[in-house]
Amino acid sequence: KKVAVCFFGDGASNQGNFHESLNFAAIWKLPVIFVCENNLYGASTHLSKVMRNTSIAERAATYGIRGQTVDGNDVLAVYAVTKAALDAARSGQGPTFIEAYTYRMGAHTTSDDPTKYRVSAEVEVWKHRDPIERFKRWLMTTGRADTDFFDAVEEESDELGASVRERCLALPDPPGTDMFD
After folding, report:
1. Active-site residue identified among 59, 63, 101, 104
2. Is the Cα torsion angle 26, 30, 31, 32 positive or negative in sign?
3. 131-141 vs 75-90: helix axis angle to the nearest 10?
4. Given 42, 133, 141, 176, which residue has the most CB atoms within 10 angstroms?
5. Distance between CA atoms of 134 and 47, rounded to whole angstroms?
6. What is the pLDDT of residue 171?
7. Residue 95 DSSP label
8. Residue 82 belongs to what H/E stretch?
9. Residue partners of 5: CB distance under 8 A and separation at least 6
10. In angstroms, rounded to a whole number, what is the distance separating the alpha carbons of residues 162 and 148?
11. How far is CA 139 from CA 61, 103, 133, 177, in A?
């Protein structure tokens, strides 16, 4: 009844081990869910510059496994697709490939400057698709949560963040020789 879930970005879908993994999982009907977080950019290169067909989920068919694209910024849609994939894997139907179509708002790394390869208009469009804000609106609109709930969550998360930072900063530095162990 256990299922492995593998997360990776769209850039990784062009690597050999990606294809080998899908092929191996398909042949053995392994209970694996492959989740590609397609944020349109492999590091600083737009997907359209490295793939002729920009639907990564369509690749699943070549391995004989289910593939599906989902709005990665829609929490409920991602949940539904993932639950179906989990049910399929647990019932012996083998792997599923999910392409969660989303967007990376920030830099790829600390040395990355996305303003060199993205235009501000593109970023603005995606700001309005923020998954947290969308889900929050849904929770409030359907009466499942109110501002008091979100205020409490924010306060609790601030306290937890401060506590974790404090504990991390209190950790002793490991001896330099540990890197060789």
Report:
1. 104
2. negative
3. 100
4. 42
5. 25
6. 92
7. -
8. helix 75-90
9. 32, 33, 35
10. 21
11. 36, 22, 10, 51
Summarised one tens digit per residue, pLDDT across range 73-121 is 999 999 999 999 999 999 999 999 999 999 998 888 889 899 999 999 9
Q: Which of 46, 108, 129, 134 is catalytic?
A: 108
Q: Report which residue type is found at 55.
A: S
117 as an active site residue: the answer is yes
Per-residue b or e along 130-169, where b marks 16 or more CB atoms closer than 10 Å to that residue's CB: ebeebebeeeeeeeebeeeeeeeeeeeeeeeeeeeeeeee
Q: Tell me the two tokens of residue 64.
A: 């004989």
- For the chain, the average pLDDT equals 94
Per-residue DSSP letters for 7-70? EEEGGGGGSHHHHHHHHHHHHTT--EEEEEEE-SEETTEEGGGT-SS--GGGGGGGGTSEEEEE
Q: Which residue has the tokens 């004989």?
A: 64
Pick the catalytic residue from 66, 117, 118, 129: 117
pLDDT tier at 45 (50, 70, 90 boundaries)? confident
The model's pLDDT over 16-42, given as tens digits with 9 standing for 90+, comes to 999 999 999 999 999 999 999 999 888
